[in-house]
Amino acid sequence: MIRRWLFADQLGPHFLDAPRQPVLLVESKAVFRRRAFHRQKAHLVLSALRHRAAELGDQAIYLRTETYGEALRKVSGEPLDVCHPTSRRALSFVQDLDGVTVLPPRGFATDPASFVTWADGRHGRLRMEDFYRDARRRLDVLMDGDTPAGGKWNLDAENRQPPPASGVPAAPPPMPVEDEIDEGVRRDLDRWEREGIRFVGRDGPRLFPATRREALARLRHFVEHRLPAFGPYEDAMLADDPWMAHSLLSAPLNLGLIDPLDAVHRAEAAYRSGAAPLSSVEGFVRQLIGWRDYIWHLYWYFGSGYAATDGLRATRHVPVWFRDLDADELEARCLSDVLAGVRDRGWVHHIPRLMVLGNYALQRGWRPAEIVDWFHRSFVDGYEWVMTANVIGMSQYADLGAMTTKPYAAGGAYINRMSDYCRGCRYDPRSRLGVNACPYTAGYWSFLDRNRGRLLGNARIGQAMRQLDRLEDLGAVRDQERDRGDRAP
Ligand code: SF4
């Protein structure tokens, strides 16, 4: 059987054709020289690779080299195959190699041909909700015959509750226990830092699964103990509870340790047995076979030029305090806490990403491509494919609506409603002007004002634009925000 070269995000059994297939695993140091990744992300990836090599034993050739090219020269002469890699750079590299066969991608629920057929049939109107319904039907997930289980496709309306005062009723997630492989990874990363390789963020105990066993333990625990509370509070934020009832499965999914359809089937079984409510299960299923797959396919469908899209002419560089995760400098409680979460864990859930970090960048007009790079490097689950459309299309609205219907800009009122941040903040979420002006509230009006001409045709923000026209203090807000610039708020 031909030897399968597995990249570091292809580590589950579904990337092999048979359990005993010979394997090649490569640890390339050059990857870590190219970008300053979060220290905990570097640890997770190396730990996962080394754990997989240990599991496979003499079934795998495991090479630690400076580059992939150097590793391939060591095994030259032996034919290899590889599943379609997850970045353009890696795809182009493997396609140019002699003796290496590139197979279709794995690790996603929808195959490329089905996506292209769906997208081409939309005539330029791509919406995740439509793709998700198509996937539910095609994959027969949460369906009762031809109709969605429970009669509705989307139960989002039940899933937007603010955080409960008593905390989210979910058991804490199980955390991995580090072993001697992690000790070796930490020693190597310390040495690499001394040699000049840069990382961002703080080191800390490994918080995310590096093996399939750990990933399945987290998935089982989530479905049994946390899924019921996931849906209602999936958009809420609590300063003292970064995990809430989220699955914390994005990192092992993106390492390829879990097959997303397996996770979906387990969640659906919980609904069918009465162990979890449909709203929670539907929300989780939508994240996996809806949003995750949609983002993956758009990365390829939109082509290489999409990453440089900048329809809102956002030309300011990401400031150093944000780039370097200097959370302690900030007085804005929400942003300080979320940035500290990125620094200390390399992870915050999707609402802090979208409505605290992305929202702030969108309001200030920071360059979308720099934001993509920042998310890619700073999150344990960040990869080019996952961050490109999430940031360019959704969070920064740089494609002017090619994949979403409106910009995700919001003032402090949204953050106040969906979190407990504002109570302890020195700013006032209702205020847009003066020393207590919330940077999000002032930034929201400033964003609409700056982009009025580019957003005029968008019906979903028509009412906000009419409110903007009625603001008597708009000139003063404009001056205030120009003076605030990109200073840490
Ligand atoms: Fe964030 Fe504004 Fe609320 Fe402070 S008042 S926590 S800056 S939204």
UniProtKB/TrEMBL annotation:
UniProt cross-references to SUPFAM superfamilies, sorted A to Z: Cryptochrome/photolyase FAD-binding domain (SSF48173)
Compositional bias of kind Pro residues: 161-176
Keyword S-adenosyl-L-methionine in annotation: no
Stored Pfam families: DPRP
Sample GO molecular function, one term: lyase activity
UniProt KW keywords: Lyase
Residue numbers spanned by region Disordered: 150-176
Protein name: Deoxyribodipyrimidine photolyase-related protein
Organism: Asanoa hainanensis
